[in-house]
């Protein structure tokens, strides 16, 4: 019996809950950047091989992490998110489609009151559909792309088409067949791309170097010095500096320092205060001066690390049951 598309809605009131919402897709952390209450609303439709969801955020947020390796993802954002956001540390080009290859780093800062639609496909299924429907291989899947060229300068028409696919699945009394759903999504993505055969990734060699540097720093719990990092990467300090400036508009030290604090917060949020202390977490990540660490942590996150560690009451969000 052919499987049917499933739909659902979720509302979350804490930025950390979004990670639990899609645990097998995005290995990402969401951070609220504006004070006050937080609310994010999701509408989604999914089959065993594809997911499309619309998300609406009331407050400004930052997202860091990566897409799980067996997937590819495409995003279509509203004008405010395109114009007021920072995508991988840069502006969203007028003719761009944010594209995430499996394992690609995610680093976005998006304004409040924004919406975006996201399509996530199993990589192999998308590749096969693209070849069948477009008539040639999607060679951009072999590259760590950031923006693909779009056939629509504002992306609104394609976002609206994706939203209609969700609505169609919601309103179907008999259920939309999974194969039809996947083909429809792939067709919308193909239509959205301009000269896909000749698409070029925004990240080239500098992107690869940055990804290697970040991965290496994480493997060493951010304890490597810049000299040690360059030695492991077999590159000069100026080369590494240029790569980070080119990709993220930040110096290596500034970016990795931010990631180290993000990692500290992630560990503190997941740690039972009866099993570890702030000092132990800080030392694990190479922070030697506990007072300075606490001060800088509060400046970045608006609370002391001990307050983060004591967050015992968490609202549990039922995840989207796609590949859970």
Give a structural overview.
- With 324 residues, the chain is of the alpha+beta class.
- The chain folds into 2 domains: 6-198, Jelly Rolls (Sandwich); 216-309, Homeodomain-like (Arc Repressor Mutant, subunit A, Orthogonal Bundle), CATH 1.10.10.
- Helices cover 41% and strands 21% of the residues.
- The protein has helices spanning 17-21, 79-84, 123-134, 156-171, 178-192, 205-219, 226-233, 237-248, 252-270, 278-284, 290-301, 305-309, and strands at 6-12, 26-32, 40-46, 50-57, 61-67, 71-77, 86-87, 96-100, 105-110, 114-122, 147-149.
- The strands form 2 sheets. Strands 1-3-4-10-6-8-11 form a 7-stranded antiparallel β-sheet. A 4-stranded antiparallel β-sheet has the order 2-5-9-7.
Features of the shown structure:
324 residues; seven-stranded antiparallel sheet; Arc Repressor Mutant, subunit A; alpha+beta; 21% strand; 41% helix; Jelly Rolls; 11 strands
